[in-house]
Design brief:
mainly beta; about 425 residues; 7-stranded mixed sheet; 4-stranded antiparallel sheet; globular; Methylamine Dehydrogenase, Chain H
Length: about 425
């Protein structure tokens, strides 16, 4: 394990940093933050706000659902125009929302996508020098300098799925890793992050999906863990060889795997139990590495869960959140977050609270524990046509909330 790879300790599992630099922690360098688990460690972030707390808001060109990625003074987003016929990568000034640069990454006839998805849903990744944006079958994987200079692009193949694309790229040392689940020719691939040269490619089960990989250390080795339609798999990040496989018969393994103490919490997109598995095995571990499984109440197409202080909180698309004991899987409570609204965005955590964003832009703060406790319901004055499906992004004392068309900056910078 390299000493310059910044890490956060959990019990039994080391969740490895998203990038090589320790600066990643005070930034938000990719999907679910510096450790791919939705946690921000910094203190002093806003937990309650109103529309008066909005420092600035920026109208975005086109529409998109990718979450804001931040490094220093720059915010990176993707967007699409003309119903997917044009794909954009954008960089905004975090101080005022002004567009610093934008590039058309791709134009052409759009591939199929679900009405709840679109063509700009995968969150970017950055190491502070380059930014990486993935558009699936339409556009592939693109690399730019953070100043906006195109570096390389790779066509990663023909993706067969009526759902569209949403799997996010992951930076691991000098590699950029991309999951490419598809009805045909599914695979996961690692490219040299500076040149785009393919380093390895590993076949996956052919099935629809958009789960993003995470990197952990368990049992003295690094494991690249990815959910999928047929189950969870772990790979050697340096070679792509498969370490272990846990079979899931219920399908639609789209939520990202989330570390929970010394276990991995797993959800399925279809109505199915939540379960926890032990990492670190070899071969098929279905019969040996299941820690617990618990029946989960209703709903499909769940966002990824969040784990705080030994509690797992998971929302469904109907806006109902359940809380589980991470060690045993016991369901502690279940309840609706406010009005009957939809939740697509994966929650984030800071200050001991979980923050869930619903489709009309309400952000509900929940305190994990034995009983349900809603701490705050926060709202911005969004237009009726705005839809919120991106995760909240915390960074340096501020929060960034993205709707399909607008980016909001909440709070004062430290």
């Amino acid at each position: 394990m390299t000493t310059n790879c910044f890490r956060a300790m959990l019990t039994g599992i080391v969740l490895l940093a998203f990038t090589l630099s320790a600066q990643a922690e005070k930034n938000w360098p990719g999907w679910r933050g510096p450790y791919s688990n939705g946690h921000a460690k910094e203190a002093g972030l806003p937990t309650k706000w109103t529309n008066d707390s909005v420092t600035w808001k920026a109208e975005l060109k086109g529409k998109g659902q990718s979450s804001p990625v931040i490094w220093g003074e720059r915010i990176f987003l993707t967007s699409e125009l003309q119903n997917g016929r044009q794909r954009l990568v954008m960089c905004l000034d975090r101080n005022n929302g002004r567009t610093l640069w934008e590039h058309t990454a791709w134009t052409g006839d759009p591939e199929p996508s679900h009405r709840m998805n679109g063509w700009a849903s995968a969150t970017c990744a950055t190491d502070g020098e380059h930014v990486y944006a993935f558009f699936g079958r339409g556009g592939g994987l693109h690399c730019y300098t953070v100043e906006g200079k195109p570096v390389w692009k790779q066509d990663l193949g023909h993706f067969e799925s009526p759902w569209g694309t949403a799997a996010c790229p992951l930076l691991v040392r000098d590699m950029i890793i991309q999951n490419c689940d598809s009805e045909k020719n599914a695979y996961i691939v690692a490219l040299n992050k500076k040149t785009g040269k393919e380093l390895w490619r590993t076949k996956r089960d052919d099935a629809r999906g958009w789960s993003s990989p995470i990197l952990i250390e368990a049992g003295g080795r690094e494991e690249l863990v990815v959910n999928g339609d047929t189950g969870v798999r772990a790979y050697n990040p340096d070679t792509g060889s498969e370490y272990w496989y846990f079979k899931n018969t219920r399908g639609r393994g789209t939520p990202t795997v989330t570390p929970a103490g010394d276990l991995l919490a797993v959800l399925c997109g279809r109505p199915a139990p939540i379960y926890a598995i032990r990492p670190g095995g070899n071969g098929e571990v279905t019969a040996t590495h299941l820690a617990w499984t618990t029946k989960r109440g209703g709903g499909r197409d769940l966002p990824s869960p969040i784990v705080i202080d030994g509690y797992i909180l998971a929302a469904n698309m109907k806006g109902i959140v359940a809380c589980y004991d991470a060690k045993t899987g016991k369901e502690l409570w279940q309840g609706r977050l406010g009005a009957a609204r939809t939740i697509f965005a994966a929650p984030v955590a800071f200050g001991g609270l979980a923050f869930f964003v619903n489709d009309v832009g309400e952000t509900i703060a929940v305190r994990p524990g034995e009983k349900m406790e809603i701490v705050a319901t926060n709202k911005v004055a969004a237009a009726d046509e705005e839809v919120f499906r991106a995760s909240l992004t915390p960074s340096d004392g501020q929060l960034f909330l993205r709707s399909t068309q607008v980016l909001y900056c909440i709070g004062k910078r430290k």
